[in-house]
Design a protein that fits this description.
Blueprint lengths: L2 H5 L5 H4 L22 H27 L7 E8 L5 H7 L9 E5 L5 H4 L5 H4 L8 E5 L8 H4 L5 H20 L2 E9 L2 H13 L9 H7 L2 H15 L6 E5 L3 H19 L10 H9 L2
Parallel strand pairs: 1-3, 1-4, 2-3, 4-5
Helix pairs in contact: 3-12
Adenosine monophosphate binds next to helix 7.
Length: 287
């Protein structure tokens, strides 16, 4: 990462936000802004300043993956309660990348066809291509979140899925995909305010779904299901990050930084020409 990209943070947020041993979700304050002390106005500016860097990284990743596919894609997995801001991350963070370099998939209630297969079947089909950034707006984790809370599968099957997910993500790693798992964490009160806003504004009515209020009534069950997800699937090699989400500007800046950090770890280099540059220059001049 370039010097100034690191400098805006007072602390290493890959450590601050990481779910490690002993992590307790209810100890996270959704209105906090860990590691960032400059406030909203600068936060928005910092986000804009780094947009180009993410785009260039993806460009380099794509170019590099033509000659070396050992680390060839980045997959951002976004999980959150309704209104937490997944869409804003996709628009304002991932939106700065060349659309051809991005593959976004939103996972809804499974279709009849999808339900006939293993829960990872539809996930496999949505993986990013070599050189791309994949974004999962919801993911295979719904199969141990809403499915658990709503009892949509047998307890044994749900239990089996945690290990299946760990194996799956390990395989992705071996195949060259870096998986960045992010939960956007908003407070119960903030969600009410955001849902209320959707009811207040005719241009937002389409975004409101009466079932959102039903899911909201199960808030403690969802938080407990998230805690289990962290306990079972946040590993050294594939950690979760919990990003406080009540401040949208903070969540966006944090996710952008986490993405930049993944790319910095890959540090994809432009491929070196495998032809004679001077010779080609001369040939071109002669035309
Ligand atoms: P939204 O993202 O707000 O359009 O809503 C998508 C809905 O699909 C959410 O209520 C999710 O909980 C639900 N959903 C996504 N994946 C699954 C799944 N595997 N099983 C059941 N419901 C799901
Ligand atoms: Mg919804």
């Amino acid at each position: 990462m370039s010097k100034d990209a690191a400098d805006i943070w007072s602390d290493d947020i890959t450590q601050l936000l990481r779910v490690s041993d002993g992590f307790i979700l209810s100890n996270v304050d959704p209105s906090s802004t860990p590691g960032y002390e400059h406030g909203k106005k600068r936060g928005k500016k910092d986000l804009a300043l780094r947009a180009k860097q993410l785009d260039e990284y993806q460009d380099r990743l794509f170019a590099r993956s033509r000659v070396d596919a050992t680390q060839s894609s980045v997959l951002l997995v976004l999980q959150a309660m309704d209104t937490a801001g997944k869409g804003g991350i996709i628009r304002h963070v991932v939106g700065s990348v060349d659309p051809q370099g991005v593959k976004i998939t939103a996972f809804k209630k499974p279709t009849e066809e999808e339900l006939k297969h293993d829960f990872l079947w539809r996930i496999e089909k949505a993986l990013p291509a070599t050189g791309q950034i994949g974004v999962f707006d919801r993911s295979h984790y719904e199969d141990v979140l809403v499915v658990k809370v709503r009892e949509l599968a047998e307890p044994d099957e749900i239990e089996r899925r945690y290990d299946a997910i760990n194996d799956f993500e390990e395989r992705l790693r071996e195949e060259g995909t870096r998986v960045l798992k992010v939960m956007l964490h908003i407070s119960y009160e903030e969600q009410r305010a955001r849902l209320m806003k959707r009811l207040d504004r005719p241009d937002k009515h389409w975004k409101f779904n009466p079932s959102d209020v039903d899911e909201r009534s199960l808030w403690p069950h969802y938080m407990s299901a998230f805690q289990t997800v962290f306990d079972r699937t946040s590993t050294d090699r594939s950690p979760w990050y919990v990003v406080p989400g009540d401040n949208k500007w903070y969540a966006r800046l944090a996710v952008q930084t986490l993405l930049l950090h993944e790319f910095a770890a890959i540090d994809p280099q432009w491929p070196v020409a495998d032809y004679d540059i001077e010779g080609e220059r001369a040939r071109l001049m002669a035309t």
